[in-house]
Amino acid sequence: MTGACFRGWSRACLAFHTGDRFTGWRNDVFVGGLAGEQLVRIRLRGSEAVERETILSGIGRVRAVTSAPDGFIYLLIDDADGRMLRLEPAG
To answer: pTM for this structure?
Structure first.
């Protein structure tokens, strides 16, 4: 799911992670911000946010974030180079 609004964010995109590459993050929400130029992971319990972690910051305007069928999380960065980033597990 991309392009949805998240309360408290201005011009943000979000994705629910359902892949198998980051099992500790399964079913967490990833929010990318245009103005904030960051990617944040939010863990929900029901409708309440119980954990928040900034994964990346200062990376440029995050135009889109998605949890792809290959299990990775992809970001589209809105800058002069038009970068696409793929998050990979550490190690």
So the answer is: 0.83
